[in-house]
Design goal:
The structure is a homodimer.
Chain A: H1 2-5, H2 7-13, E1 24-25, H3 37-45, H4 68-80, E2 84-88, H5 91-102, E3 108-112, H6 117-125, E4 129-133, H7 148-155, E5 159-163, H8 175-185, E6 189-192, H9 204-207, E7 211-215, H10 216-219, E8 227-231, H11 236-239, H12 261-276, H13 280-296, E9 300-302, E10 311-315, H14 317-323, H15 331-339, E11 342-343, E12 352-356, H16 362-379
Parallel strand pairs in A: 1-11, 3-4, 3-5, 5-6, 6-7
Antiparallel strand pairs in A: 2-8, 7-8, 9-10, 10-12
Helix pairs in contact in A: 3-12, 5-6, 13-16
Amino acid sequence: MAKQIGDKSLQKLTNLHRPHKELINLMPLQTGSMLTEDAKKALVEFGDGYSICDFCQGSLWNITNPPIREFVQDLLPKFLGCEVAALTYGARDGIFMVMHSLAEPGDSVIVDGNRHYTTVVSAERAGLDVIDVASSGYPEFRIEVNDFIPLIKKHNPKLILLTYPDGNYGNLPDAKRLGEIAQEYDIPYIVNGAYAVGRMPVNMEDLGADFIVGSGHKSMASAGPSGVLGMRRRWESKVLRKSQTYDNKEIELLGCSLRGVPLVTLMASFPSVAERIQHWDEQVSKAQWFSGELEKLGFRQLGEIPHRHDLLHFETPMLYDISKHVRERGYFLYKELKERGIWGPQPGLTKTFKASTFAANEEQLKFVIDSFKAILSKYS
Amino acid sequence: MAKQIGDKSLQKLTNLHRPHKELINLMPLQTGSMLTEDAKKALVEFGDGYSICDFCQGSLWNITNPPIREFVQDLLPKFLGCEVAALTYGARDGIFMVMHSLAEPGDSVIVDGNRHYTTVVSAERAGLDVIDVASSGYPEFRIEVNDFIPLIKKHNPKLILLTYPDGNYGNLPDAKRLGEIAQEYDIPYIVNGAYAVGRMPVNMEDLGADFIVGSGHKSMASAGPSGVLGMRRRWESKVLRKSQTYDNKEIELLGCSLRGVPLVTLMASFPSVAERIQHWDEQVSKAQWFSGELEKLGFRQLGEIPHRHDLLHFETPMLYDISKHVRERGYFLYKELKERGIWGPQPGLTKTFKASTFAANEEQLKFVIDSFKAILSKYS
């Protein structure tokens, strides 16, 4: 076996390293999920497979050591503003669970046009038709939630979904107004809060939603894969329906759902996550200031202005112009930034890039701004 | 928020500890998933959410740094003896993916009567009827694979599944013969190797199977949740079918499937796992010797004798008798063993218990045997 595989291939696996450690991190996927010190310790403590199951009596969410029961049954519902909470492998898995439970193949769901690709793939997996509510398009890509109304009337969907905020522009549509619409037309309403839950205050009940999904590995300082799903009590018997053969096992969770080390990091980071969302105003100010400074350099911020989220998307034609004339092509930007200790824009991209200011402090962001200045002047 | 939740609840989460560290571990769920030193390092290196996605270009299995592409597209297929490999959240998730892809609600699947509960729950999630092939019953609970034939003829199933070995008795039915039957009747055949893949040599092609699932957090020295799925090339376009909207995203994987730290531990432990399966004969000898010694104490081993797997199930009426007369009731055994540095039998159980000899060496097992002797004589 080992011979057939080859020692060289095996050797590579024994010493895995990440090249982007300790850099100033602007990568939107990553800025909300850096582990707290407590989570790093928990990671090692519960690293071995099934180690959180030591005291399982047949139901993961009833384990009291570590305190999974209190986390799932008390802390998470309070945090999400919902009646019942569940653990999932990620926001997408929560969306699929809900779609698969509430709709039949051939049914329709109406979603905002800025939805993450996984919303569409989840619907495909459940056999559902997806109808998009178009955004306002370039440059702000706003979602006007009243635009859901004619589509609801026309398609009689089984579910509506709003991405709050979306992962492309960081726009925050009027989720509360859509909650009123959902109630008026009596359509179950799911909020995809993968970029909200754990970063900013968000409360399912205040939004008038039936479901909310969050992502541990995107916004809750957790290792992946991990996610949360909140719902109204009335949906519990449907989405968390039990096996007819094993009455303590939820069908959509295949018995357990999230277990192991990502769950432990989600729990260990939770106190710090619950605290940090209270400083959201400062995060928004920081993002707006950073965006303004980059606009002074000639970058154009896409999405809502003034911006209300740390996820920013910039159009940068001057960087693209440079890429056409340098040996590294689009990769020059990644290289220039990495040399300065900055990681964020996807390697290869220069026409536009996304950046999140969530994890960097003002001093670091000043350094980022100065670095962009220096890069522009170096190649001008 | 923090106030609403209560400081005491939050405080508990900041210092999570596992009580069963450093004990002699006989817990069948855990003995195959203790992390290697390399995996422990990788855990910390890639702990932050999305950190393995630094160089993702839109397809997780094409990431070359860390070397996910080589792992999934080259090493795993060789290891599993299959043409195409996939990453999953666990064995159950692989089973559901296959069922959901190959069968329609109302279809039937035929499975061995020793199947894990997740086989049934996966089928329920996919809307399928489950037909069990009964075992021989007490005390050996053998599965005779020829018993699949009349049920195949009667029910025309979309899939047959064999648990190899099962997680209750550690029995190894004739998987190869079932492969011949599957080919004769042209029924797709899935081997649930959650307790095989990573512990013992097992090769999908040799067994004549169409699919094999394995569990990282059960038998591949990996953190959970993590699993692998191997298949014949002919099933790739069905099980790994792509989204119609996003042509690089697999529908059943919701785009990515397993990502994050469990994947990294699966990779980092792989060289050691590939090596350890070559010593399976020694594992079997050790299990047989241990079982024989416990039988000398009056315990009765259930399941196949001679046993061919490290997972053992004992009937222990004398321990049950003791439990009726002591203050701790069924928990006396857990307490007595823990005091001696041994962890394994589920707390509270004394009538029967399961134990795995996979992670303990002969000296440790001798100590376990002596401990049982001492416990029996203490209470006699």
